[in-house]
């Protein structure tokens, strides 16, 4: 028989660490950000990721890229589906976190979790379809078979939206990883801990280590190092400021990185239909065109 | 009939027993002006108070015409004309009407094909054979292809709504002057944008002939504006506040400057930059065709090709055979007067480029690679460079890493497919690669592993308006050609 | 008979790229003195041919006289050979007495080759005895396509032996072999078996000689030479009726095999109407006016 709750019991605080290469290391810098609930209560001392953490995450993402891109699209699709399942089964924890920490209403928290689950499922479905929709066979005027397929760009940094701690994060990586990119997500808002909660979902979704890496910290602090990192192939930016657009663009030019600034949906409503599109996959694919003669 | 004898001299003599007589393309029908200004708002603008420079024939070093150098005020006039044309005419015109204008341009290029080819060769130094058989027909084909898209854009991108961007600022290189103009102008017009384009300063002439065609075709004033000039003019276009879209083809160095320049402006950007393409030859390749592919890969257009197969990767066990075949083949290449119909390798485009090639070739020799050039007599004047192959090259050599943009091939070897892939991808560039093998499964596996936008399997340097072209990594982003070539000029929602 | 022949491994041939390469020779522009010299070379390389069911001694005599004196104008070479059916050899011998013109005959039950080896060998021997000094044989395409490469080798070798001092040209009938890979392999087998020349076609099957097929054969000859030092000749036959096309073939020979093969000893055209077109072009070069066939004798 269940015992009554012991009101004197002390909560166990959770330590939120970074998520790099399928592991949860502390920041190498040893620095932290104290996160509070919307009401000002203590949540955790969150890792304040440094330039070197970013460097480590890029190493992890690079080593994961070949394997992830080489997975069959069907397999990538299944893994995104698995993420959706995992989130569904732990939805109450996230609803709770959104309400308690971020101050969401019950309905809003439910809506965000619903949208996050559905978005994972939706992009998962694109993994083995976008190649057909955006690839082509090209009718060249010579006896050659010619086709074009989209492939992943490589290692990306994604600057997650500043709102929607759960859905924003999902939106910031899902269109990137379906094609085979690996990402380092930078999370900078008041409820970073939810991103690390979500890392635990990733951790049990059969996602290979290093495909998604999550760093909590400050955009400003790592921004220059993202643009200037020569092993980063592209930068996806959500909720960009004018200064960010400029500085990221300038830094990215050093290695001709692909940069895309995703539009923030009207009213910052990340559950909106306009916050997901197969065309959001395109900024970070490379179109490869192959020719081969036909004859005997 | 010859007695069957076995000789000890086992080499072929490509001598003078039967030499091709000079076969110069006549130029008497070419009527060039002494000076060219710009084409702005439907008017030919004479060279005025602005600076001017000469464009020369690189095969003779003789000047062909004076060319105006647009300053910021001139560029501003051109952008204003383009904006006005966009707002008042071109963005409102039904696609089917835009299509007909573009079709007109295509037809007129065909009608004036020989004239354009001759001028292209005179101004740029490329063999008449190539300008006649490749550049000009492809330019016309490009306009034809995109003309047809103008009224079919709604079908190009499923589920999306598309909109033109506005004014496109375009800067193009000197290696395929008219063709690059076509690659830029045709999709921009088809998608409903208006244009300010700057041809390269060493090859402005066919762009001015294209201006005449556009004028004859009756395009509304301001839809296409062509301004001449050098780097500063290009910068003025790129930096103009009222330009919505920047498209650049040229060096990676300049591409980076442009990417920085447009940072934060919201201008849509596409870059088609340098390359250091690997041409991979396996031991099961159709060997004679592969050798031909090597030649075509590096000596086409004097090697002034961003997607040139400038790094030859040969499987170690056939290295000797391939090199011998290649050297023999090279000794039949005709180097010289670009206007001669038999010339295979014409003039280097400019003194500056010649010196860059010579400097890199010297570095190859200094670094210990082995140089081969066939005996060929080069003309006394003009910028001519003998076809060159370096063997014994290792990845650390400059000639294995830097884009030479000349008729210079660096040969490396590999032992396994994996090593070939590694070496091919061992470059910041990623524009094009070739793979030669008789085994389909190997070819497709390697094609998938190469980080390059164009993969030529058992062929090289093929181009088609319906085939997207563009790079990975520091070779740029965005595609030209095919349905994908529409994307850079559209807002897709 | 050599049963020990190992079927050679030959490089594969990519059709489209080979076609492209061959087409490039069409862009060679051959003008003025190069044209005149080339045209004269072409005349000397022609195997002036008549291979019709309706051939008569009269027709062959007419052909031989044309071979000796292509046109009234002086300073032109004679053709390389006349090429006739075996029964016509005595007529040609008679007509060509005192000239350097070779007498080629198509033996081995041309054009199908469908007869027993013994019968084919007998025909070759009889034809050589009758005075032919060049024998154009056909391979058994059926045997080749059935993969009986050793049989092809043996039959060519036997025919070569039967030829004695006469030269052997081996017709592959490339139009029936279809693929360039087959052409390359058949060329190599014929060369290995002792062919003095390899030849594309009988002229009775389409496609006849084409530039890319000839290129593939020239490349086989080249590689054999570079490996062994042994020269082998080449004869495209059928379908080459214009001087312009013949000059393109010459350009292909020049750039594939070099100067040594620009010689009737090593390169021939199997043709009938080519000669008069060459003569027309020579007249055009000489007079600057376009010529008419009405001024040329027929063969």
Structure at a glance:
The complex is a heterotrimer of chains A (296), B (493) and C (299). With 493 residues, chain B is α/β, with parallel strands linked by helices. Chain B is built from 14 helices and 20 strands.
Keywords:
heterotrimer; A: alpha/beta; Aldehyde Dehydrogenase, Chain A, domain 1; five-stranded parallel sheet; three-stranded antiparallel sheet; 9 helices; C: alpha/beta; eight-stranded parallel sheet; 47% helix
Describe the structure.
The complex is a heterotrimer of chains A (296), B (493) and C (299). By secondary structure, chain A is α/β, with parallel strands linked by helices. Chain A is 39% helix and 19% strand. The model of chain A has no long low-confidence stretch (mean pLDDT 96). Chain B has 493 residues and is an alpha/beta fold. Chain B is 37% helix and 17% strand. In chain B, the strands form five sheets. In chain B, strands 14-15-16-13-12-17-18 form a seven-stranded mixed beta sheet, sandwiched between helices. A six-stranded mixed beta sheet of chain B has the order 9-8-7-10-11-19, sandwiched between helices. A three-stranded mixed beta sheet of chain B has the order 1-5-4, with helices on one face. In chain B, helix 14 (440-449) links the parallel strand 17 (432-436) and strand 18. In chain B, helix 1 (72-90) packs across helix 7. The model of chain B has no long low-confidence stretch (mean pLDDT 96). With 299 residues, chain C is of the alpha/beta class. Chain C has a single domain (15-295), classed as Aldolase class I (TIM Barrel, Alpha-Beta Barrel). Chain C has helices spanning 15-25, 32-45, 57-68, 89-95, 117-130, 141-145, 149-163, 174-177, 180-192, 211-228, 243-256, 274-287, and strands at residues 46-49, 81-84, 102-106, 134-138, 167-171, 197-199, 233-235, 269-271. An eight-stranded parallel beta sheet of chain C has the order 7-6-5-4-3-2-1-8. In chain C, helix 9 (180-192) runs parallel beside helix 10. The radius of gyration of chain C is 18 Å and the shape is globular. The mean pLDDT of chain C is 95. Chains B and C meet through helix 9 of B and helix 1, helix 2, helix 10 and helix 11 of C. Strand 10 of chain A pairs parallel with strand 18 (454-457) of chain B, so a sheet runs across the interface.
């Amino acid at each position: 028989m269940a015992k009554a709750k012991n009101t004197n019991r002390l909560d166990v605080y959770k330590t939120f660490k970074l998520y790099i290469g399928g592991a949860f290391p502390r920041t190498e810098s040893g620095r932290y950000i104290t996160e509070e609930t919307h009401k000002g209560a203590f949540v955790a001392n969150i890792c304040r990721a440094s330039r070197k953490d970013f460097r480590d995450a890029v190493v992890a993402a690079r080593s994961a890229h070949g394997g992830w891109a080489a997975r069959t699209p069907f397999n990538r699709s299944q893994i995104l589906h698995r993420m959706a399942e995992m989130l569904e089964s732990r939805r109450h924890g996230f609803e709770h976190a959104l309400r308690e920490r971020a101050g969401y209403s019950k309905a809003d928290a439910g809506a965000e979790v619903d949208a996050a689950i559905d978005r994972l499922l939706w992009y998962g479905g694109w993994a083995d379809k976008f190649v057909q929709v955006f690839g082509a066979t090209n009718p060249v005027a010579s006896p050659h078979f010619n086709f074009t397929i989209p492939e992943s760009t490589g290692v990306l940094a994604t600057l997650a939206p500043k709102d929607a701690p759960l859905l924003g994060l999902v939106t910031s990586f899902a269109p990137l990883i379906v094609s085979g990119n690996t990402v380092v997500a930078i999370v900078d808002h008041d409820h970073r801990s939810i991103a690390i909660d979500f890392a635990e979902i990733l951790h049990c979704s059969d996602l290979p280590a290093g495909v998604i890496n999550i760093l909590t910290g400050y955009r400003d602090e790592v921004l220059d190092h993202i643009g200037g990192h020569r092993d980063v192939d592209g930068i996806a930016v959500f909720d960009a400021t004018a200064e960010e657009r400029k500085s990221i663009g300038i830094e990215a030019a050093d290695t001709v990185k692909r940069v895309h600034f995703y539009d923030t949906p009207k009213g910052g409503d990340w559950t909106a239909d306009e916050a997901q599109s197969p065309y959001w996959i395109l900024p970070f694919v490379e179109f490869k065109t192959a020719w081969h003669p036909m004859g005997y | 009939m010859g007695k069957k004898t076995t000789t000890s001299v086992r080499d072929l003599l490509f001598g003078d027993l039967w030499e091709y007589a000079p076969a110069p393309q006549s130029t008497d029908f070419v009527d060039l002006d002494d000076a060219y200004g710009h084409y702005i708002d439907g008017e030919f603008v004479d060279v005025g108070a602005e600076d001017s420079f000469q464009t020369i024939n690189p095969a003779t070093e003789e000047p062909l015409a004076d060319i105006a150098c647009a300053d910021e005020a001139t560029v501003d006039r051109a952008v204003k004309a383009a904006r006005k044309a966009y707002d008042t005419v071109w963005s409102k015109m039904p696609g089917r009407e835009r299509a007909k204008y573009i079709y007109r341009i295509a037809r007129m290029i065909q009608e004036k094909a020989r004239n354009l080819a001759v001028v292209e060769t005179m101004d740029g130094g490329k063999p008449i054979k190539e300008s006649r058989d490749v550049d000009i027909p492809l330019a016309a084909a490009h306009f034809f292809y995109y003309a047809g898209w103008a009224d079919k854009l709604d079908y190009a991108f499923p589920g999306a709504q598309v909109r033109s961007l506005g004014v496109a600022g375009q800067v193009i290189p000197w290696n395929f002057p008219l063709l690059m103009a076509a690659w830029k102008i045709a999709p921009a017009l088809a998608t409903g944008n208006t244009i300010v384009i700057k041809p390269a300063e060493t090859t402005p002439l066919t762009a001015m002939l294209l201006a005449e065609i556009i004028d004859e075709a009756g395009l509304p004033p301001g839809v296409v504006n062509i301004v001449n000039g050098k780097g500063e003019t290009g910068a003025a276009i790129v930096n103009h506040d009222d330009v919505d879209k920047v498209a650049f083809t040229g060096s990676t160095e300049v591409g980076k400057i442009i990417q920085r320049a447009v940072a934060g402006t919201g201008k849509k950007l596409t870059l088609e930059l340098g390359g250091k393409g690997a041409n991979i030859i396996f031991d099961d390749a159709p060997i004679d065709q592969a050798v031909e592919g090597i030649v075509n890969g590096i000596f086409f257009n004097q090697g002034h090709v961003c997607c040139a197969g400038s790094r030859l990767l040969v499987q170690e066990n056939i290295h000797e055979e391939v090199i011998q075949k290649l050297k023999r083949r090279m000794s039949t290449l005709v180097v010289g007067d670009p206007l001669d119909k038999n010339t295979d390798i014409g003039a280097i485009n400019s003194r500056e480029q010649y010196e860059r090639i010579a400097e890199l070739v010297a570095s190859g020799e200094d670094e210990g690679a082995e140089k081969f050039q066939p005996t060929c007599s080069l003309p006394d004047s003009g910028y001519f460079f003998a076809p060159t192959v370096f063997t014994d090259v290792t990845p650390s050599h400059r000639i294995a890493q830097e884009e030479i943009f000349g008729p210079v091939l660096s040969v490396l070897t590999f032992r396994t497919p994996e090593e070939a892939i590694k070496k091919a991808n061992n470059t910041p560039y990623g524009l094009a690669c070739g793979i030669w093998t008789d085994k389909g499964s190997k070819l497709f596996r390697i094609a998938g592993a190469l980080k390059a936008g164009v993969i030529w399997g058992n062929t090289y340097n093929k181009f088609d308006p319906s085939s997207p072209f563009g790079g990975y990594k520091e070779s740029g982003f965005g595609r030209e050609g095919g349905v994908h070539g529409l994307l850079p000029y559209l807002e897709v929602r | 008979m050599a049963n020990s022949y190992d079927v050679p491994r030959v490089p594969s041939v990519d059709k489209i790229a080979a076609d492209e390469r061959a087409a490039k020779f069409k862009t060679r522009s051959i003008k003025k003195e190069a044209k005149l010299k080339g045209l004269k070379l072409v005349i000397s390389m022609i195997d002036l041919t008549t291979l019709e069911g309706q051939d008569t001694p009269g027709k062959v005599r007419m052909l031989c006289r044309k071979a000796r004196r292509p046109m009234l104008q002086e300073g032109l070479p004679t053709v390389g050979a006349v090429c006739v059916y075996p029964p016509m050899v005595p007529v040609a011998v008679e007509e060509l007495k005192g000239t350097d013109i070779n007498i080629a005959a198509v033996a081995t039950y041309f054009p199908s080759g469908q007869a027993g080896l013994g019968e084919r060998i007998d025909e070759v021997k009889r034809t050589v005895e009758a005075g032919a000094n060049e024998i154009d044989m056909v391979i058994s395409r059926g045997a080749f396509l059935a993969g009986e490469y050793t049989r092809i080798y043996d039959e060519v070798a036997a025919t070569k032996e039967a030829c004695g001092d006469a030269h052997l040209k081996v017709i592959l009938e490339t139009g029936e072999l279809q693929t360039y890979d087959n052409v390359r392999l058949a060329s190599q087998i014929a060369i290995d078996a002792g062919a003095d020349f390899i030849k594309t076609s009988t002229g009775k099957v389409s496609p006849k000689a084409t530039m890319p097929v000839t290129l593939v054969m020239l490349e086989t000859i080249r590689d054999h030479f570079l490996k062994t030092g042994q020269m082998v000749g080449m004869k495209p036959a059928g379908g080459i009726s214009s001087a312009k096309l013949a000059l393109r073939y010459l350009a292909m020979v020049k750039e594939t095999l070099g100067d040594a093969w620009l010689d009737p000893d090593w390169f021939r055209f199997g043709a009938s109407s080519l000669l008069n077109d060459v003569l027309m072009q020579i007249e055009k070069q000489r007079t600057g006016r376009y010529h008419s066939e009405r001024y040329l004798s027929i063969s």
